[in-house]
């Protein structure tokens, strides 16, 4: 007796469904990334599989941003870009930080738009004023003098301090292992067919970035010297194979830094632009980094000067991680503040690499991956294990 056409369709439908259940999702994601990273074309059925494979069951991660009320519309566009390019598939939740009572300035209409864009995966969290305002113990006259001489607003300096020592401690991020920072003024010019956090995991890494470039020292003239003094005072806590050569010039610069005598002449000024930053919480939630931030906080440079979170993160990563524990992303078409950005030659990107602003992109990632190796010779009393 011949099988009817409806029964035949039902049979094939059940067969395909069983294959999707049995085929490991992680393998699909890895194949997707592997194909795109080598500029290979990927069959449509694999793209569809990778889109449905994660289903919100991937790494325990969160995307977070700090949103001043004046940047609500900007943030909505950033969230829309993030959702359209990859996160509607990956389903990572969002935490949107506002400071103090600023949440009251966000209208219900704007909250509803964010809820719609993120399909209800965004929650708001408040940054307490003690994590934002100038500590009472600081010399207020010295702070005012710095604002006049160096510039940059009090709010900008507070942001740098928050992103240096408080974001990873906030209760809103406590349940997550992977912390993915984005800013309100960003855009992705490429579809991302893989999970960037999973890429970091697959590489056995703990930190991911997009771009490295030198930072300026005139706004933070004493930062490198303070870092050097911290290294000398806490040499017993340093892993022996961290990538010190990323932030200090050569063997002589590294040795001078470890002895507490280095300054801006020895500092390479190389910095990951951490407006895009994927990190495992252990990078910050360990005794070495906590002691490092407390030391900087005591010195007061966030307000006496304008110490930035980007070089502070770079110093921290260099003193605690190996080269292979850091991953660069070069295929996202990620842009910040309308600046020049990397536009890959990929069909899934909608940018023009030969036109402004993409044409002006430059990057110094080699400064991390090709930094001179140096093993700390002291026998450490304690080694913070970030693996």
From TrEMBL:
Keywords of the record: Transferase
| Organism from which the protein derives | Tetrapyrgos nigripes
Family from the record: Belongs to the glycosyltransferase 15 family.
User: Per its record, what are the GO molecular function terms?
Assistant: alpha-1,2-mannosyltransferase activity
Superkingdom, natural source: Eukaryota
Q: Does the keyword Transferase apply?
A: yes
Which GO annotations describe the biological process of this protein? cell wall mannoprotein biosynthetic process; protein N-linked glycosylation; protein O-linked glycosylation
Name the UniProt record assigns to this protein: Uncharacterized protein
Taxonomic path = Eukaryota, Fungi, Dikarya, Basidiomycota, Agaricomycotina
Gene Ontology cellular component?
A: Golgi apparatus; membrane
Q: What Gene3D superfamilies is this protein classified in?
A: Spore Coat Polysaccharide Biosynthesis Protein SpsA, Chain A
